[in-house]
Design brief:
Elements (H helix, E strand, L loop, with lengths): L1 H15 L3 H33 L21 H6 L26 H5 L7 E7 L2 H11 L5 H17 L7 E4 L4 H7 L3 H13 L8 E3 L11 H8 L3 E3 L9 E9 L3 H12 L4 E9 L11
Parallel strand pairs: 1-6, 2-5, 5-6
Antiparallel strand pairs: 3-4
Length: 290
Protein backbone atom coordinates (compact mmCIF):
# COMPACT_ATOMS: atom_id res chain seq x y z
CA UNK A 1 0.00 0.00 0.00
CA UNK A 2 2.87 2.36 0.84
CA UNK A 3 4.44 1.75 -2.61
CA UNK A 4 1.15 2.66 -4.32
CA UNK A 5 0.86 5.84 -2.23
CA UNK A 6 4.48 6.80 -3.00
CA UNK A 7 3.92 6.21 -6.75
CA UNK A 8 0.83 8.40 -6.66
CA UNK A 9 2.83 11.19 -4.95
CA UNK A 10 5.63 10.94 -7.52
CA UNK A 11 3.25 11.21 -10.50
CA UNK A 12 1.30 14.07 -8.93
CA UNK A 13 4.35 16.12 -7.99
CA UNK A 14 5.84 15.76 -11.47
CA UNK A 15 2.71 17.36 -12.89
CA UNK A 16 3.00 20.17 -10.31
CA UNK A 17 6.73 20.58 -10.85
CA UNK A 18 7.70 19.92 -7.23
CA UNK A 19 9.94 17.30 -5.66
CA UNK A 20 8.23 14.19 -4.26
CA UNK A 21 10.35 14.31 -1.10
CA UNK A 22 9.21 17.87 -0.33
CA UNK A 23 5.53 17.02 -0.69
CA UNK A 24 5.91 13.86 1.38
CA UNK A 25 7.62 15.87 4.13
CA UNK A 26 4.82 18.47 4.07
CA UNK A 27 2.20 15.71 4.19
CA UNK A 28 3.97 14.11 7.16
CA UNK A 29 4.08 17.43 9.04
CA UNK A 30 0.39 18.00 8.36
CA UNK A 31 -0.46 14.57 9.76
CA UNK A 32 1.62 15.23 12.89
CA UNK A 33 -0.08 18.59 13.48
CA UNK A 34 -3.49 16.98 12.97
CA UNK A 35 -2.63 14.22 15.44
CA UNK A 36 -1.41 16.76 18.01
CA UNK A 37 -4.63 18.76 17.67
CA UNK A 38 -6.69 15.59 18.14
CA UNK A 39 -4.70 14.68 21.27
CA UNK A 40 -5.15 18.21 22.65
CA UNK A 41 -8.91 18.12 22.00
CA UNK A 42 -9.15 14.70 23.66
CA UNK A 43 -7.49 16.11 26.76
CA UNK A 44 -9.93 19.03 26.86
CA UNK A 45 -12.92 16.69 26.44
CA UNK A 46 -11.57 14.37 29.16
CA UNK A 47 -11.18 17.28 31.58
CA UNK A 48 -14.70 18.52 30.80
CA UNK A 49 -16.04 15.01 31.39
CA UNK A 50 -14.20 14.82 34.70
CA UNK A 51 -15.83 18.09 35.76
CA UNK A 52 -19.32 16.80 34.93
CA UNK A 53 -18.74 13.17 35.95
CA UNK A 54 -15.79 13.27 38.36
CA UNK A 55 -13.66 10.15 38.69
CA UNK A 56 -13.53 8.76 42.21
CA UNK A 57 -10.83 6.65 43.80
CA UNK A 58 -12.00 3.03 43.97
CA UNK A 59 -10.58 2.65 47.48
CA UNK A 60 -11.45 5.87 49.37
CA UNK A 61 -14.31 6.99 47.06
CA UNK A 62 -12.94 10.56 46.96
CA UNK A 63 -12.77 12.53 43.68
CA UNK A 64 -9.28 12.22 42.16
CA UNK A 65 -7.29 15.20 40.92
CA UNK A 66 -6.55 15.64 37.21
CA UNK A 67 -2.84 15.03 37.82
CA UNK A 68 -3.41 11.70 39.52
CA UNK A 69 -3.69 8.28 37.92
CA UNK A 70 -7.33 7.56 37.25
CA UNK A 71 -9.32 5.46 39.72
CA UNK A 72 -6.60 5.26 42.41
CA UNK A 73 -5.63 8.48 44.17
CA UNK A 74 -2.01 9.18 45.08
CA UNK A 75 -2.68 8.85 48.80
CA UNK A 76 -4.28 5.41 48.48
CA UNK A 77 -1.59 4.19 46.10
CA UNK A 78 1.03 5.16 48.67
CA UNK A 79 -0.90 3.39 51.43
CA UNK A 80 -1.52 0.14 49.54
CA UNK A 81 0.76 -2.65 50.72
CA UNK A 82 1.91 -4.33 47.52
CA UNK A 83 3.08 -7.92 47.93
CA UNK A 84 6.06 -7.25 45.68
CA UNK A 85 7.56 -5.16 48.50
CA UNK A 86 7.60 -8.12 50.91
CA UNK A 87 9.19 -11.55 51.18
CA UNK A 88 6.40 -13.92 50.19
CA UNK A 89 5.83 -17.63 50.59
CA UNK A 90 6.81 -19.47 47.43
CA UNK A 91 3.68 -21.63 47.67
CA UNK A 92 0.73 -19.47 48.78
CA UNK A 93 2.26 -16.05 48.05
CA UNK A 94 1.41 -14.59 51.45
CA UNK A 95 3.79 -11.89 52.72
CA UNK A 96 5.87 -13.21 55.62
CA UNK A 97 8.55 -11.88 57.92
CA UNK A 98 10.16 -15.29 58.50
CA UNK A 99 10.10 -18.22 56.10
CA UNK A 100 11.45 -21.75 56.18
CA UNK A 101 14.63 -22.84 54.47
CA UNK A 102 12.76 -23.50 51.22
CA UNK A 103 10.91 -20.20 51.35
CA UNK A 104 7.68 -21.91 52.49
CA UNK A 105 5.55 -20.40 55.25
CA UNK A 106 4.48 -22.27 58.38
CA UNK A 107 0.88 -22.78 57.21
CA UNK A 108 1.90 -24.32 53.88
CA UNK A 109 4.41 -26.60 55.59
CA UNK A 110 2.15 -27.79 58.41
CA UNK A 111 -1.29 -28.04 56.81
CA UNK A 112 -2.74 -30.21 54.07
CA UNK A 113 -0.76 -30.20 50.79
CA UNK A 114 -1.77 -27.46 48.36
CA UNK A 115 -3.31 -28.71 45.13
CA UNK A 116 -2.27 -25.58 43.26
CA UNK A 117 1.31 -25.30 42.03
CA UNK A 118 1.64 -21.74 43.28
CA UNK A 119 -0.52 -18.78 44.30
CA UNK A 120 0.26 -15.07 44.15
CA UNK A 121 -1.53 -11.86 45.17
CA UNK A 122 -1.25 -8.16 44.36
CA UNK A 123 -1.85 -6.44 47.71
CA UNK A 124 -2.36 -7.15 51.39
CA UNK A 125 -5.96 -7.22 52.56
CA UNK A 126 -6.28 -4.61 55.31
CA UNK A 127 -8.71 -1.95 56.51
CA UNK A 128 -7.76 0.40 53.67
CA UNK A 129 -7.88 -2.02 50.73
CA UNK A 130 -10.93 -3.87 52.07
CA UNK A 131 -13.12 -0.77 51.72
CA UNK A 132 -12.65 -0.68 47.94
CA UNK A 133 -12.93 -4.45 47.56
CA UNK A 134 -16.17 -4.63 49.55
CA UNK A 135 -17.65 -1.75 47.52
CA UNK A 136 -16.81 -3.62 44.34
CA UNK A 137 -18.19 -6.95 45.56
CA UNK A 138 -21.44 -5.23 46.54
CA UNK A 139 -21.88 -4.03 42.96
CA UNK A 140 -21.22 -0.35 43.68
CA UNK A 141 -18.22 0.06 41.36
CA UNK A 142 -17.95 -2.25 38.36
CA UNK A 143 -15.04 -0.24 36.92
CA UNK A 144 -13.04 -1.51 39.89
CA UNK A 145 -13.04 -4.95 38.24
CA UNK A 146 -11.08 -3.55 35.29
CA UNK A 147 -8.61 -1.70 37.54
CA UNK A 148 -8.10 -4.81 39.67
CA UNK A 149 -7.51 -6.91 36.54
CA UNK A 150 -4.84 -4.47 35.32
CA UNK A 151 -3.07 -4.72 38.70
CA UNK A 152 -3.30 -8.51 38.60
CA UNK A 153 -1.93 -8.62 35.05
CA UNK A 154 1.03 -6.50 36.16
CA UNK A 155 1.63 -8.84 39.09
CA UNK A 156 1.54 -11.83 36.74
CA UNK A 157 4.30 -10.24 34.72
CA UNK A 158 6.40 -10.14 37.90
CA UNK A 159 5.72 -13.63 39.27
CA UNK A 160 4.71 -15.71 36.21
CA UNK A 161 6.94 -14.34 33.43
CA UNK A 162 7.87 -17.79 32.10
CA UNK A 163 4.71 -19.72 33.05
CA UNK A 164 2.32 -20.52 30.22
CA UNK A 165 -1.46 -20.74 30.65
CA UNK A 166 -4.13 -22.12 28.34
CA UNK A 167 -7.24 -21.10 30.30
CA UNK A 168 -8.38 -18.61 32.92
CA UNK A 169 -10.91 -20.12 35.34
CA UNK A 170 -12.71 -18.31 38.14
CA UNK A 171 -13.46 -20.02 41.45
CA UNK A 172 -16.93 -21.57 41.66
CA UNK A 173 -19.42 -18.74 42.31
CA UNK A 174 -22.28 -18.68 44.78
CA UNK A 175 -25.54 -18.36 42.84
CA UNK A 176 -27.36 -16.74 45.75
CA UNK A 177 -24.71 -14.06 46.30
CA UNK A 178 -24.47 -13.40 42.55
CA UNK A 179 -28.23 -12.84 42.37
CA UNK A 180 -28.14 -10.60 45.44
CA UNK A 181 -25.23 -8.47 44.18
CA UNK A 182 -26.27 -8.41 40.55
CA UNK A 183 -22.74 -9.39 39.43
CA UNK A 184 -20.22 -12.15 39.94
CA UNK A 185 -17.16 -10.12 41.02
CA UNK A 186 -14.68 -12.82 40.07
CA UNK A 187 -16.24 -13.33 36.64
CA UNK A 188 -15.88 -9.60 35.84
CA UNK A 189 -12.22 -9.66 36.86
CA UNK A 190 -11.64 -12.79 34.75
CA UNK A 191 -13.05 -11.13 31.64
CA UNK A 192 -10.88 -8.05 32.02
CA UNK A 193 -7.84 -10.14 32.94
CA UNK A 194 -8.33 -12.18 29.78
CA UNK A 195 -8.39 -8.97 27.73
CA UNK A 196 -5.22 -7.75 29.45
CA UNK A 197 -3.22 -10.98 29.13
CA UNK A 198 -4.66 -12.63 26.02
CA UNK A 199 -5.34 -15.85 27.95
CA UNK A 200 -8.81 -17.22 27.05
CA UNK A 201 -11.39 -17.11 29.83
CA UNK A 202 -13.71 -20.12 30.05
CA UNK A 203 -16.81 -19.27 32.04
CA UNK A 204 -18.57 -21.89 34.15
CA UNK A 205 -15.82 -24.50 34.42
CA UNK A 206 -16.27 -24.74 38.19
CA UNK A 207 -19.71 -24.97 39.82
CA UNK A 208 -21.14 -24.96 43.31
CA UNK A 209 -22.89 -28.28 43.92
CA UNK A 210 -24.44 -27.29 47.25
CA UNK A 211 -25.05 -24.21 49.37
CA UNK A 212 -22.50 -23.46 52.06
CA UNK A 213 -22.44 -20.95 54.91
CA UNK A 214 -20.50 -17.73 54.47
CA UNK A 215 -16.80 -18.50 54.86
CA UNK A 216 -15.56 -15.15 56.19
CA UNK A 217 -14.67 -15.26 59.88
CA UNK A 218 -14.49 -19.06 60.03
CA UNK A 219 -11.49 -21.05 61.21
CA UNK A 220 -9.39 -23.05 58.76
CA UNK A 221 -10.78 -26.45 59.79
CA UNK A 222 -14.38 -25.22 59.54
CA UNK A 223 -13.76 -23.82 56.05
CA UNK A 224 -12.44 -27.19 54.87
CA UNK A 225 -15.48 -28.99 56.27
CA UNK A 226 -17.90 -26.54 54.58
CA UNK A 227 -16.25 -26.75 51.17
CA UNK A 228 -15.84 -30.53 51.07
CA UNK A 229 -18.00 -31.76 48.18
CA UNK A 230 -19.39 -28.26 47.52
CA UNK A 231 -17.44 -27.67 44.30
CA UNK A 232 -17.67 -29.67 41.10
CA UNK A 233 -16.68 -29.62 37.43
CA UNK A 234 -18.99 -28.61 34.64
CA UNK A 235 -19.48 -31.90 32.72
CA UNK A 236 -19.22 -29.98 29.44
CA UNK A 237 -15.80 -28.52 30.30
CA UNK A 238 -12.74 -30.15 28.73
CA UNK A 239 -9.56 -29.23 30.61
CA UNK A 240 -7.48 -32.35 30.11
CA UNK A 241 -3.83 -31.39 29.82
CA UNK A 242 -4.63 -27.70 30.20
CA UNK A 243 -2.47 -25.24 32.14
CA UNK A 244 -4.92 -23.24 34.20
CA UNK A 245 -4.78 -19.85 35.89
CA UNK A 246 -7.26 -19.90 38.78
CA UNK A 247 -8.64 -16.49 39.81
CA UNK A 248 -10.25 -15.23 43.02
CA UNK A 249 -10.63 -11.76 44.55
CA UNK A 250 -9.39 -12.37 48.12
CA UNK A 251 -7.33 -15.19 49.60
CA UNK A 252 -7.85 -15.72 53.33
CA UNK A 253 -6.63 -19.18 54.37
CA UNK A 254 -6.27 -20.56 50.84
CA UNK A 255 -8.98 -23.16 51.43
CA UNK A 256 -11.21 -21.97 48.57
CA UNK A 257 -8.35 -21.90 46.09
CA UNK A 258 -7.17 -25.33 47.23
CA UNK A 259 -10.58 -26.99 46.87
CA UNK A 260 -11.13 -25.44 43.43
CA UNK A 261 -7.64 -26.46 42.33
CA UNK A 262 -8.24 -30.02 43.52
CA UNK A 263 -11.37 -30.30 41.36
CA UNK A 264 -9.45 -28.94 38.35
CA UNK A 265 -6.62 -31.41 38.90
CA UNK A 266 -9.09 -34.29 39.20
CA UNK A 267 -10.64 -33.05 35.92
CA UNK A 268 -7.32 -33.55 34.14
CA UNK A 269 -5.60 -30.17 34.36
CA UNK A 270 -1.83 -30.35 33.83
CA UNK A 271 -1.22 -27.79 36.57
CA UNK A 272 -3.04 -24.99 38.37
CA UNK A 273 -1.52 -21.67 39.43
CA UNK A 274 -3.55 -18.99 41.15
CA UNK A 275 -3.74 -15.21 41.23
CA UNK A 276 -5.82 -13.11 43.62
CA UNK A 277 -6.16 -9.39 44.09
CA UNK A 278 -5.61 -9.41 47.85
CA UNK A 279 -4.40 -11.78 50.54
CA UNK A 280 -4.90 -11.79 54.28
CA UNK A 281 -1.45 -11.87 55.85
CA UNK A 282 -1.23 -13.18 59.42
CA UNK A 283 1.61 -12.90 61.90
CA UNK A 284 4.12 -15.57 60.89
CA UNK A 285 5.42 -18.38 63.11
CA UNK A 286 9.08 -19.24 63.36
CA UNK A 287 10.08 -22.76 62.31
CA UNK A 288 12.40 -24.75 60.09
CA UNK A 289 11.43 -27.06 57.27
CA UNK A 290 13.78 -29.41 55.57
Amino acid sequence: MSYIFYGFIVKTTRLWGTRPQSLIALTGRALIVRRQRKTYMNRILRNVRNLIYPTKCIFCNIVTDFGEERYICNECRDRLKFCRDFSCCKKCGKPQISLGERGICYDCASRLPKKFKRAESVIKYDSMSSAGIKRYKNGESEISGKVFAVLMAQRMGEVYPDTEFDIIAGVAPSKMRTMKRGIDPVQVICRYLSAETGIPYKEGILLRTKRIPKQSGLAYEKRIKNLKGAIGMNPKADIKGKRILLVDDVMTTGTTLNENAEVLKEGGAKYVCAITLATVAKEPKTYKNG
